[in-house]
Design a protein that fits this description.
Layout: E1 2-5, H1 13-24, E2 27-29, E3 32-34, E4 36-38, E5 45-47, E6 63-70, E7 79-92, E8 96-110, E9 116-126, E10 136-143, E11 145-146, E12 149-150, E13 156-161, E14 167-168, E15 176-181, H2 183-186, H3 198-206, E16 209-214, H4 230-233, E17 255-259, H5 271-288, E18 293-297, H6 305-317, E19 323-326, H7 345-363
Parallel strand pairs: 15-16, 15-17, 17-18, 18-19
Antiparallel strand pairs: 1-9, 2-3, 4-5, 6-7, 7-10, 7-14, 8-9, 8-10, 8-13, 11-12
Helix pairs in contact: 3-7, 5-6
Length: 365
């Protein structure tokens, strides 16, 4: 293991009603049922514990999984999809270890300490080679992505705690922002990929949960040559699979930021196709998050701008008062790019500087 800091007779009726109400909270993701329980901090639905989940194990309700995780395929192993998924937990004791099924790159942060990178680790990964001080601690972990796919075996199998130690629910932000896009939103070519992408930066700056529903090379419109189309895949658990659908009751987004269109030019997508697909994606996002503010970004290379803006105007004219077009003209200069397409670390910070206030003004962060 290598570590390096980078940086769910008449008197019986109430019981029956309660059972029916509880059944309505059943959550489906990954093709099989999972219990769900309301998160008392945020009001969003989160996965309930498995009946035998011990502290630190995947079904422990004190471990908060943010993003699209398959938490139903196995009670002992949880798998994230899309970019930038992470989990947070509070724990007691002086040490914590992470159980990984296979080799993976990951980032971990304990309390407010430095973020550390763990390269090609597997099995039991010691996150505290130097014991912590006694008391309560917090942990955040995310797996390294490359172009939106996880590099290695991104399967969480639990935490190893000190004898007698336990977990507790970490402080939970009240709001969540979802970022939908391609490799730019993934953070491709930045120093820490998803962690140094504008979506993660904005989420941390505004003090909100954040998800990156993004895939490297993705288009808005699914192409016959294999380009992943997010107008179709936005509703899925897995960006690369037609099933299962994602269960949107698992969390509620307060804002959705869409940054798509950069790659469609190279896949023969016409202007009419693009505008129709963008309108469809706006409808799907609205159906998923009825109260969210939806931001449609002008792509940084200025592609399909009239069609993006027209789709937004059509949505507003159709009665959606919580969607807006964001003009990004002039946001990035040549020094903000790694190549002609992807922003570097500084470029993502520039985007965050510009976009964070726009989002905050609408969601009140």
């Amino acid at each position: 293991m290598q570590t390096s800091p980078h940086t769910s007779p008449r008197r019986a009726r109430p019981a029956l009603l309660a059972a029916v109400l509880m059944a309505s909270l059943l959550s489906w993701a990954g093709g099989s049922p999972a219990r769900a329980a309301p998160d008392g901090t945020t009001g969003r639905l989160t996965d309930g514990p498995h009946s035998s989940a011990a502290p630190g194990q995947p079904g422990d309700p004190n471990i908060k999984f943010v993003g699209r995780w398959d938490t139903t395929g196995s009670s002992t192993a949880y798998t994230p999809y899309w970019a930038g998924a992470y989990y947070r937990a509070g724990f007691t004791g002086r040490t914590v270890k992470l159980k990984q099924r296979g080799t993976i790159d990951l980032w971990a942060r304990i309390d407010n300490g430095p973020v550390k990178f763990y390269d090609d680790v597997k099995g039991t990964v010691n996150l505290t080679p130097t014991a912590l001080s006694p008391g309560n601690h917090t942990l955040q972990v995310n797996y390294q992505v490359v172009a939106g796919s996880y590099k290695g075996d991104a399967v969480f199998q639990g935490l190893v705690l000190d004898s007698g130690a336990t977990t507790f629910a970490p402080p939970a932000p009240a709001k969540l922002v979802e970022f939908v896009g391609d490799s730019i939103t993934v953070g491709t070519t930045t120093s820490q990929n998803a962690r140094t992408a504008y979506g993660w930066l904005i989420g941390e700056r505004l003090g909100v949960e954040h998800t990156q529903i993004a895939q490297g090379g993705a288009c808005l419109v699914a192409a016959a040559d294999g380009c992943v189309g997010l107008e179709r895949q936005f509703t899925k658990l897995n960006p690369n699979a037609a099933t299962p659908d994602w269960n949107f009751s698992r969390y509620r987004a307060d804002a959705v930021v869409i940054n798509l269109g950069t790659n469609d030019v190279g896949h023969g997508v016409s202007a009419a196709q693009f505008q129709s697909a963008y309108s469809s994606l706006l409808r799907k996002a609205r159906a998923a998050y009825p109260q969210a503010w939806i931001f449609a970004l002008e792509t940084f290379r200025g592609r399909f701008v009239p069609q993006t803006e027209a789709a937004v105007k059509a949505a507003v004219a159709g009665g959606d008062a919580r969607v807006s077009f964001v003009d990004t003209t002039g946001w990035l200069g040549s020094g903000d790019l790694t190549d002609s397409v992807h922003p570097n670390d500084r470029g993502h910070r520039v985007i965050a500087d510009r976009l964070a206030p726009v989002i905050a003004a609408r969601i009140g962060s």
